[in-house]
Design goal:
Blueprint (H helix, E strand, L loop, with lengths): L2 E5 L3 H12 L3 E6 L10 E4 L1 H9 L3 H7 L1 E3 L1 E6 L4 E6 L7 E5 H10 L6 E3 L3 E7 L2 E6 L4 E4 L1 E4 L6 H7 L5 E12 L10 E6 L3 E7 L5 E8 L11 H8 L6 H8 L5 E8 L11 E3 L14 H18 L3 H29 L5 H13 L1 H13 L3
Parallel strand pairs: 1-2, 1-12, 2-8, 5-14, 12-18
Antiparallel strand pairs: 3-7, 4-7, 5-6, 9-10, 10-11, 13-16, 13-17, 14-15, 15-16
Helix pairs in contact: 1-4, 1-8, 2-8, 8-9
Bound molecules: flavin-adenine dinucleotide.
Length: 376
């Protein structure tokens, strides 16, 4: 057992390739895009994810290109603090990082011959314990095992589990990047603001970049307002905490991305013999807990560890899934519940939610801490 085919070169595929090559395997990643790219947005790497970077020998470099984050603060839309979670109490730091920086950090350590760009995976066949993967270009390759790291609309998942579409969760998001640091920013903080059916958050990344995100209830595939997405956001958040309109105004319209939010109900098994899934292909989740990419890093590390311990990929993938399924199922559910809290539109319900958050502050802190305390 040596040659592992990985479909998809996002954060999950890159981390899996790195973890496998460090464990002595020959992974080859097939990525459909012609160049490696990540969206212009940030990400928080909580202690459970910086633990993986530490194990892969990347933590010091991540600290250099990222920003050390200490607190996760929830506020009302006008900036009244509801909960303040200290997130720097672990042996490992929390890092705010640009997604492209994280992606490059992972890829820089993977030998270039292990990445094939511009190949769209279509299907597989099993012949004598080997997996044959077929691509749109007509190319086919053979491996001892195949790992689908091909994201929310994974073709590998569709081939082994059926082609159900992901579930739209009634939220549209906007993500922006700017060099402007707003006057109300607390250094080291991730600051989130919760209102009626919408929310806003911002945090510092490395190299002086501020990353912000907004979410609001919306119908699926809702297009930008005629006034354009920047003006629409300025209108939506005009009377919120002053840093919010300040950040929107300081951001170039070209640096504002929109994404609809989907997940899938947890399912098991997600492996079939010598084929398995990692990251969003296995357990896509709403971004409410900020754990999608973090759990993809955990998956990558654990799947490589299992393959190293068990020469038979079928047994290794069963072990991997039994280790990963309980944790990821719980986070998918928690992310959905937390997303639903943001759906509240009635001012009375929003007032009750905010009071609940204030009263339950220490329970909320404990729940984040136990999520981040996990060491894969
Ligand atoms: C608004 C928003 C905010 C988020 N914020 C956070 C956060 O703060 N923290 C966090 O941890 N997570 C966050 N996430 C989640 C995170 O982005 C994902 O969980 C993570 O990117 C999943 O990585 P992946 O490698 O599994 O999938 P992807 O990043 O989707 O990568 C899949 C790759 O597979 C390739 N591919 C797809 N199909 C094929 C094919 N047929 N053949 C070949 N290649 C293929 C794609 O081109 C892509 O490169 C957020 C998500 C959203 C939408």
């Amino acid at each position: 057992m040596n040659r592992v085919i990985i479909i998809g070169g996002g954060i999950g595929g890159a981390a899996t390739a790195l973890a496998l090559s460090r464990a002595g395997f020959e992974p080859v990643v097939y990525e459909r895009t012609k160049g490696l790219r990540e969206v212009g947005a940030g990400i928080a790497l909580w202690a459970n994810a910086t633990h993986i970077l530490n194990n892969l020998g990347l933590l010091e470099e991540a600290k250099q290109v990222g920003y050390l984050t200490t607190n996760y603060q929830f506020n009302s839309q006008h900036g009244k603090e509801l909960v303040n979670v200290a997130i720097n109490g672990f042996e490992l730091p929390v890092i705010g990082i640009h997604r492209a920086e994280l992606h490059q950090l992972l890829w820089r350590k993977v030998p270039s011959e292990n990445l094939i760009l511009g190949e769209i995976f279509e299907r597989f066949e099993r012949k004598n314990n080997q997996v044959h993967a077929y691509f749109a270009s007509g190319m086919s390759v053979e491996g001892d095992a195949l790992i689908g790291a091909d994201g929310l609309r994974s073709r590998v998942r569709a081939a082994i589990l059926g082609d159900e579409p992901p579930t739209y969760r009634n939220f549209k998001t906007w993500r922006g990047l700017t060099n402007h640091v707003p006057s109300g920013y607390h250094p080291g903080y991730i600051q989130e603001f919760l209102g009626c059916g919408k929310g806003f958050g911002f945090m510092m990344l490395g190299k002086g970049k501020m990353y912000w995100y907004a979410a609001a209830t919306a119908i699926e595939a809702q297009s930008d307002a005629a006034m354009g997405r920047k003006k629409e956001l300025e209108t939506m958040y005009q009377d919120w905490f002053s840093s919010i309109p300040e950040l929107i105004t300081a951001t170039d319209e070209a640096n504002i991305l929109t994404t609809d939010l989907y997940d899938r109900p947890p399912i098991q098994p997600w492996s079939q013999q010598n084929i398995t899934l990692v990251g969003d292909a296995a357990h896509p989740m709403l971004p409410a807990m900020g754990q999608g990419a973090c759990t993809a890093l955990e998956d990558a590390y654990v799947v490589a560890k299992c393959l190293k311990e068990q020469p038979d990929p079928i047994a290794a993938f069963q072990q991997y899934e039994s280790l990963r399924s309980p944790r990821t199922q719980a986070i998918v559910k928690q992310s959905l519940q937390s997303g639903k809290m943001g759906e509240l539109k009635n001012p009375l319900a929003v007032g009750l939610r905010n009071t609940f958050m204030k009263v339950m502050g220490s329970a909320i802190s404990d729940s984040f801490k136990s999520l981040h305390a996990y060491r894969a």
